[in-house]
Amino acid sequence: MKAFAGRAFVYVVTVLMLQACGSRMALFQDLDETDANEIYSVLLDSGIPAQKDITKTGVTITVPQRMSGDALAVLKARGLPKSRRGSMGEIFKKEGMISSPLEEKARYLFALSQELEQTLLTIDGVISARVHLVLPERPAPGEQLIPSSVAVFVVHKTNSPFQAYIAKIRELVSSSIPGVGGTNAERISIVAIPSNEYLEKHLPLIWYGPMAIMPEDRFYFLMIVYVLLGIWVLSLGAVYLSVADENDWPKFMKTFKREQANDTQ
After folding, report:
1. What is the pTM of this model?
2. Reading across the β-sheet that carries 149-156, which strands appear in turn?
3. pLDDT tens-digit map of 192-217
């Protein structure tokens, strides 16, 4: 009975300690496989022990609860998760019998910007991209036509040679948007900024098998391990004393038992 109680105590303490060390939280849920794989890869490369779980509604990404803030900062610097962009077919999908000219123009502008953003994201080093455009418009009959204009905003990796591509990007935009080519090329504005330096730094983790801990938690982790090891050794000793003949006990244990008996008399 004593042996069973000792083993049960060790098991309970072990489970509680592991739960305390390994509590996790869901960072994102219902992701598609592509987004989930990208987020999972970025977190692992940054030293965060992420897990990917597949559910009926999509993929869930979990991280250790105390590292959730670092995980969100890393993903924000990488522009993840990326906002979903609609295709031309989805944007121009008819939902009513008749669309007004304003609705058709809004869909057209949105579709053009989405396609350009998607193209910019394929350039090496680009983290996120936004495109805002204005098509030619005549304020009133007889007035001068307002030419097209395009504003491009890009966040790129710090070590990326993106600045060398700006001339090519300007050429790409001028060929994609009506009214901004030729003499109107100056109406294309491109703003490119580097991402946060936090992105390039890996978190300083110490790995013990499948477990990752912060350096400042190493003392507490090892203390827990040694306490569990000590309890396990004591439980083995208790089991041995309960089944072994008293004549086979170590000499110091016999002496200790005699002293205890004398004290009780």
Report:
1. 0.49
2. 126-134, 149-156, 188-194
3. 888 765 444 555 666 666 666 667 77
